[in-house]
Amino acid sequence: MSAISEAAVLEALRTVQEPELGGDLVTRNMVKDLVVDGSDVAFTIELTTPACPLKDEIETDVRRALTPVGVAGISITWGATVRRAAPRSAEQLVPGVKNVIAVASGKGGVGKSTVSVNLAVALAKAGASVGLLDADITGPNIPMMLGVEGQPVSSPNNKIVPLERHGVKVISIQFFVPEGQPIVWRGPLIGGAIQQFLRDVEWGELDYLVVDLPPGTSDAQLTLAQAVPISGTVLVTTPQDVALSDVSKALAMLRRMNVPVIGVVENMSAFVCPHCGDATEIFGRGGGERFAQEHSLDFLGKIPLDMTVRQGGDVGVPAVAQRDRGPAAMALEHMAGLVAAQMSIRAATAQTPILSIT
Which of 10, 134, 192, 263 is buried deepest, with most CB atoms within 10 A? Predict the structure, then answer.
């Protein structure tokens, strides 16, 4: 069999489209380090996020495109370079952080922190560099849910060094107060703490900084929006009408401040009996998905009620980090992939939002 030329391989790869960003792999400069050895080829595909949910689809399309030109062996190495979804702003930028993803809810108790923790860990597991900022100053649960204890130390340049667990750098006010002590602070103090965590923490180079906001519409949301360009916000709700009413207010606040919203996660969508397999929709049916459709938002999936999620949160092993991952963990991983994909799309068409708080 005659040797295949590099030009023929590239021409074949030009027929493979990037399924979300559009354009072919070659034109998008996603094919790297191409080596042709007889009828065998090896190359790297540089993705826009290591958590790409369509990697398998891209690989299938690549192999299908190369077969007709006589390629016998295909070796694909996967790489990823995460780009900034919000353009640089000298006044607002957190040094080294490419994307800030806020996780918000209108109502407490809907599983916002559970989504934040599992989103951060799932992105880290995929190979991204991730930080998690616990901005729920008066109700800091992130350390327990990640299973991280201790007190951060200072770096040589007097920055706070975040603790790390499950591949995620994490900072929380809980690291600085005695166990069990309530944090009874007014708005200015809460805002100051969030600004310090953004400004004075040695985050290093991060692809994503996930920020777990407190529920509702308060100073914390205003502080974050004013301090840093938010790349996108994930809204968490249950299907229940009461929760949907409150998340509607949170969405209105975000839109009023011109903060981009990635989409909606419906948590606690149904309880699936581990014995008979029947699903019971305790909080109603389809409320989160319906809310997303009504407000022209992406729906990021339904997370079922699963006892392993609660148990993992209690012992510091998030669902996506557990060895035996059930339906909820799979749904959370899928959600993280969709969030990462949306970040890539926004990075390809990034424009600076104009903040409004009037």
Answer: 134
What's the CA gap between 196 and 155, in Å, rounded? 15
Distance CA 325, CA 125 (A): 14
Asked if 322 and 312 count as a contact pair (C-beta separation under 8 A), the reply is: yes
Q: Please give the share of the chain, as a percent, with pLDDT higher than 90.
A: 57
Q: How far is Cα 120 from Cα 210, in angstroms, rounded to an integer?
A: 6
CB atoms within 10 A of CB 14: 15
What residues have CB less than 8 Å from 65, skipping those under 6 apart?
Answer: 12, 13, 15, 16
Which is nearest to 262 in space by CA: 292, 221, 219?
292
For 358, what's the count of Cα atoms within 13 Å in the CB-facing half-sphere? 2
Q: How far is CA 228 from CA 90, 149, 222, 315, in A?
A: 10, 27, 10, 32
First vs last C-alpha separation in the chain: 70
For the whole model, what pTM was predicted? 0.88
Helices 287-294 and 241-256, axial angle in degrees (round to 10)? 30
DSSP codes joined into one string, 94-141: PTTB--EEEEE-SSTTSSHHHHHHHHHHHHHHHT--EEEEE--TTS--
Both tokens of 158, joined, read 């007097």
- Over its C-alpha atoms, the chain yields an Rg (Å, rounded) of 22
Q: Is the pLDDT of residue 163 over 70?
A: yes
Which residue type is seen at 113? S
Q: Name the one residue in this structure whose structure tokens are 């949306």.
A: 342
How far is 232 from 225, CA to CA, in rounded Å?
Answer: 11
Could you tell me the residue ranges of all domains in the chain? Answer: 6-80, 100-348
Instruction: Look at residue 2 in the predicted model and tell me its pLDDT.
Output: 62
For residue 102, the cross-strand partners are 211, 233
Mean pLDDT along residues 189-216: 90
Q: At what angle do helices 55-66 and 6-13 cross, to 10 degrees?
A: 130
Q: CATH 1.10.10.10: does it fit domain 100-348?
A: no
Count of C-beta atoms within a 10 Å radius of residue 40 = 14
* Residue spans of beta strands (DSSP E) within 228-345: 232-237, 261-272, 279-280, 298-305
